[in-house]
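quick one before i forget lol
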Amino acid sequence: MDMHTRPPTISAQVWSGGQELELRDLPAPDLGPGEALAAIDLATICGSDIHTFSGRRPGPFPGILGHEAVGRIVATGDGGVRDFHGRELSVGDRVVWSVTVACGSCDRCAAGLTAKCRSLLKTGHEPLGGEWGLSGGYASHIHLPRGVTLVSVPDELSDRAAAPSACATATVMAVLEAAGPLKSRRVLISGAGMLGIVACAVARSRGAASIEVRDLNPERLELARRFGATKTTTAGGGDGGAAFDVAVELSGAQPAVASALAALDTGGRLVLAGSVSPGPAVAVDPERMVRSLLTVTGVHNYEPAHLQQAVDFLVETKDSCDWDALVEPPRPLADLASHMAPPQGHHLRKSVAAAHPA
């Protein structure tokens, strides 16, 4: 094991259920073959973490939340670790890591559905006393077990741009892969949060003929225009007359799902990714689905290639898209509890960082 800068303890914000966090020192893990320890440079606060903290979403506790982060390798187990492209990683290499950890051998993994592995573990979603206790980004370091996807991050990409790639940006890559080719297509994006803004930029880069974004927040709609939207609609249901080839629903709101489905033209495809908690059912007209050749598909989590695609896209667009503007400058990790609230204005993510010795 490489022990150059392996710390004796790890500082972590431990969520104990409800709206309570405790900054604790925890022992650094012993690393097995193919595992690594990374010092976290910056972690962003995803809306799902805010929902967990506020009680809107269940989660195991005590545990360490946070699944969007970027950091540097500080120690590796026997055999070392490699990034997505198979390059051996060394101490000091900068990486992001996937939301999911898959076994790689079950029937779902064999079918290419590692995001739904039979024994799936998830970053920032595991109990502190479980098999992967140090799984969250709201800490000074994270344990990276065998089965996690690691993607190298070039120095030219900022921490504020890189951290959300592990959730928001990679998820958009999976969503738009499910949407099919976008060139010359009329695209509807429902929800102008972090995923919606990224989806605007990706759709623009892939040659969409038009990109309409719907959201109730005027500031976010203005942001959507900066990142590629050709039209924005404040009303939840749109104008009622537009027809789209592709609709991407990212808000999870039942009326928005129904509206997106209703807006599809013949041969249209609806991709659902925002509906991750129970809600009212949406009526489906089977005859319209058949006669109009419609497709509805769901996306949850993402595959390893999507994380690499996310980082590649951020690098390719770093001069044309102000990714840093979407994330607030980091606050101290010790202040995490006071930042567990939705961001305001053009910022779509808050962020925290632990102090590391020089």
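fyi Residues 9-156+318-353 form a domain with the Quinone Oxidoreductase; Chain A, domain 1 fold (CATH 3.90.180.10).
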